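Anyone up for a design puzzle?
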């Protein structure tokens, strides 16, 4: 009985096993610290300033390759596919996408047009089942228009125009894969894939962690509390499900590590940006990566973590 309890307790924390491997991300000053026991690893990153470009990790290696013609790439939650958006528009002034396999020996690739002028595509993210993608659509900054849904198997893209009064700047698939979550920073809406309003939540605060806002089990999401801390909410009821204290100096929530831990970044000593694993009580248990803050800010870096 004691042994069973110990195994359960150990499984509930990001217990570090194995030696640390240091990985230096090309084109940046980021150092990643990985262990063989890590639940998630960095699979892609991009630089949003200077010359926007993305880097993708080769499957089963510690090697990252620049995707010079892509402004962002994102590996699906199951690690099997990659969604990429090209930097340049096609001859019809349309964005172009690629979905391709992310396993050794995979050759299947789908190339297809996305949204066309005068519309532009914004941030995008995968559904938790790795079958669909959702992307924000806007005319120009501050004028959001709706969202694009993409079927990862067929590359069918569907644009759904939404009411101007909503002005949502995030659209992402809900955990059930049957609804999307829309947020304008004040109101959270659950809508059907054709844009019909299903549910509205108010007073929860701005969503955090973008398309990673939902816990792995899909039962909670994270927002910024009015009092500076991080709030957890029940997806089913909309009621409070916990508060994560924010340390002095602040932090940014990027993702969930598991159902009991978050991946956050913080500034250490005013000069170093750290990505760490933090419990829901605010205790740091692991350093995942660090980078000089000046370099991080100048490059507009974003790191993407995916389950092994």
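Challenge accepted. My sequence:
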């Amino acid at each position: 009985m004691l042994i069973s309890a110990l195994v359960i307790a150990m499984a509930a924390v990001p217990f570090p096993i194995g030696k640390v491997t240091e990985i230096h991300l090309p084109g940046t000053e980021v150092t990643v610290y990985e262990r063989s026991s890590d639940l998630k690893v960095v699979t892609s990153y991009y630089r949003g300033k200077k010359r926007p470009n993305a880097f993708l990790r080769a499957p089963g290696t510690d090697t990252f390759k620049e995707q010079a013609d892509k402004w962002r790439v994102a590996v699906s939650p199951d690690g099997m596919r990659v969604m990429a958006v090209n930097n340049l528009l096609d001859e019809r002034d349309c964005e172009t996408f690629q979905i391709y396999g992310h396993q050794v020996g995979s050759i299947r690739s789908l190339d297809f047009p996305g949204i066309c002028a005068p519309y532009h595509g914004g941030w995008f993210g995968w559904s938790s089942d790795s079958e669909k993608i959702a992307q924000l659509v806007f005319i120009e900054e501050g004028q959001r228009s709706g969202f694009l849904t993409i079927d990862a198997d067929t590359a069918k893209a569907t644009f759904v125009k939404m009411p101007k009064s909503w002005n949502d700047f995030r659209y992402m698939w809900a955990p059930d894969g049957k609804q999307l979550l829309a947020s304008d920073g004040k109101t959270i809406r659950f809508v059907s894939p054709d844009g019909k309003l299903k549910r509205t939540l108010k007073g929860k605060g701005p969503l955090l962690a973008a398309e990673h806002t939902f816990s792995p089990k899909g039962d909670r999401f994270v927002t910024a509390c009015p009092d500076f801390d991080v709030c957890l909410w029940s997806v089913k009821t909309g009621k409070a499900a916990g508060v994560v204290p924010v340390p002095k100096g602040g932090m940014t929530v990027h993702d969930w590590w598991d159902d009991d831990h978050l991946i956050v970044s913080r500034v250490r000593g005013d000069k170093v940006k750290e990505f760490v694993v933090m419990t829901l009580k605010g205790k740091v248990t692991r350093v995942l990566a660090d980078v000089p803050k000046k370099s991080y800010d100048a490059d507009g870096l974003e790191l993407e973590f995916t389950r092994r």
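A detail worth pointing out: The two ends are 30 Å apart (CA to CA).
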